[in-house]
Amino acid sequence: MDVRADPTRQLVRLRGRSYVAFVFSPVVPIVEWLAEIDATLARSPGFFVGKPIVLDLAAVDLSGSAIAHLVGSLQQRSIRVLGIEGVDEDRLAADMPPLLTGGRACVITRTEPPPKAGPADKPKPNSLLLESPVRSGQSVVFTDGDVTVLGSVGSGAEIVAGGSIHVYGTLRGRAMAGVNGNPAARIYCQKIEAELLAIDGYYQTAEEIDVSLRNRPAQAWLQGDTMKITPLN
Amino acid sequence: MAKVLVVTSGKGGVGKTTSTAALGAALAQGGQSVVVVDFDVGLRNLDLVMGAERRVVFDLINVVQGVAKLPQALIRDKRLENLWLLPASQTRDKDALTDEGVGRVIAELSTRFDWILCDSPAGIERGATLAMRYADQAVIITNPEVSSVRDSDRIIGMLDSKTVKAERGERVEKHVLITRYDPARAARGEMLGIDDILEILATPLLGIIPESQDVLRASNVGSPVTLNNAESPPARAYFDAARRLRGEEVAMVVPSERKGFMDRILGRRAA
Question: CATH number, domain at A37?
């Protein structure tokens, strides 16, 4: 498709440039054609979102109001029509997409893989689940997100997480959350007997943890640059 | 096919060698053919506890290095004909052991015995990792004190990652054996409780061996406690543990203090 700027006004420099757009060629009956579009959308919702769409009305003979209705129907489906071609200019009202001319067919290079190829590049998991206890001397480092431990974290063991740390057993070792500079990360545990807690570089050692909290469910978070440790129930 | 069992702890002095000898003898007394293998190269003790120190000619290192054949190094117990010892070398160090050599010895032993009990050295270095390397089962010896429990936790982590079974994605069957349990001190709250230990280690309990002079007496005369005085409390606890290893259901007995006559009449002091 070509966009031609009117060259009469030279106050603003205008240049022509062609772009690739999807072309819709509606056929009669329009209602059935719209149903076809709906079916496509049902398979891959949002497939047309943000895509430049051009309506080619050469195959149909629609009145001005019919065109307006079609553009409106597409808009309801979140399909924005960039321009219209293959129709007399006088049928288009002022508030309708502009008439385009000089379009050429080309191969559409998909900027995103087809929907079925989606699972192939699944986003990296942003949490890590450990179903067995973390033993003394083991160090679990997961900088991409949260770490959840179903068992206990032994004395002398270490959990390092980019996000929050959840321990459903007793936390006896060291837990360091938000290591990538995430002050919103927290540490939760079913029983707190930790040797050291750290969030985003701020830490507290076992000695500084209030004795009344020991052996109870607790969470630790950052308030400004002080670490708060409070019971969970 | 033999069951390969490693007796390990991480910490030293908790009773690995005593327990290896006692469990080995208990299994042998139950009719199983058993070999106890000393992996504590350079600091061997199992030969002393088994009373075979004067009959050692060849050892594990010699067999691993191919200097001696396995039957030359195996020592048969004088009291039980189905109990054997493969001693360690006292003059070499643990670097003389190789993964491949140990694997070959274990494979050869498994064709001849029902049970292979590997007595691990303390620590987490080469000797200890090679002792557990080919194990199907592990007995983790723990004393009721925090340092021992933490070291055991560390060893359990290694059993779950450094053994051949773990690398194949299988699991080493693990048991905790609590030794040197002193009922009097436990009653006074001076020792870690059984529940606390099991909660920390998250591993099933094989048995509780009470602290007893019988253990020391037995090792001084070079005899596993289960052979020396089979009726003593520690021996009975080891027999129960051995039966549990063979898959029997045996009720767990927590040793308690036997109150003497004077305790009964002067047991409670008024404030």
Answer: 3.30.70.260
